[in-house]
Specification:
The complex is a heterodimer. Chain A is of the alpha/beta class. Chain A contains 3 helices and 7 strands. The chains are: A alpha/beta, B alpha/beta. At the A-B interface, loops of A face helix 3 of B.
């Protein structure tokens, strides 16, 4: 699609303390529905959004973390995690959900959506975008 | 006199926990709630705030907030105690006052 723009959503907030994470996810899904070229970056406390095993039953807030696994079905398969943010929090990729997408050009082969990148690599990715939205 | 301090923001995003620990009197209690619970995870660059202060202050995390965020209790800094909502109430009763750091 020739009029598709490159959208980058930067997520910097932990999931439940504020509404930013959930709002971002909603906007991402809307952008994807309009067939834009969508990328997501998780930096600073935003990396906590993808933690495995979230269970909000005792806090009375909707657990929206399973929604991230639907991103692949919306062809949102460029999910960047800042290495420095992960390491500063004592986290590794194993602490995060395993997000995948299916590549229709390769007989629906399942591929990883998450890429761990350095701050310098992220800076370059931001430069390539038409639109950058920060949450 | 004893004080229960509550902190509801991540130490990676705000300096609230650092201010609380710096200004809390010895023997006081600090209860981490909401995004404050992230500061109690071990192995991070901010884990040292609690590591260094746990000799002088008692640290607690609110269990439902820990669970909501997918943090396994085995990942908490040694000595941090997990309380439920009932435990939160008990802490407020046991202490003379509550100081909510924002």
């Amino acid at each position: 699609m020739s009029d598709a723009k490159k959208f980058m959503y930067i997520n910097r907030k932990a999931p439940y303390g504020t509404v930013y994470a959930w709002e971002s996810l909603e906007v991402v899904l809307i952008g994807a529905a309009f067939e834009q070229d969508v990328s997501l970056a998780f930096v600073d406390d935003g990396v906590y959004q993808l933690m495995k095993g979230q269970d909000t039953t005792e806090v009375g807030i909707k657990n929206f973390s399973p929604t991230y696994s639907a991103l692949g079905d919306y062809e949102v398969n460029k999910i960047y995690i800042e290495k420095e943010s992960l390491e500063a929090r004592g986290l590794t990729l194993d602490d995060l959900q395993h997000l995948v997408w299916e590549d229709e050009d390769e007989d629906w082969a399942e591929k990883d959506s998450i890429r761990v990148v350095t701050s310098a690599e992220l800076a370059e990715l931001f430069e390539e975008q038409d639109v950058v939205l920060s949450f | 006199m004893s004080t229960l301090h509550t902190v509801n923001k991540s130490a990676y995003e705000r300096d609230t926990l650092e201010a609380c620990v710096r200004l809390a009197a010895k023997g006081g209690s600090v209860l981490l709630i909401e995004d404050g619970v992230y500061s109690a995870m071990s192995g991070g660059s901010k884990s040292s705030i609690i590591e260094n202060a746990k000799g002088d202050l008692n640290f607690y995390v609110l269990g439902p907030d820990v669970k909501a965020r997918g943090i396994d209790e085995s990942r908490l800094v040694d000595g941090v105690k997990v309380v439920d909502y009932k435990g939160f109430v008990e802490l407020t009763v046991e202490n003379d006052k509550v100081s909510a750091w924002l």
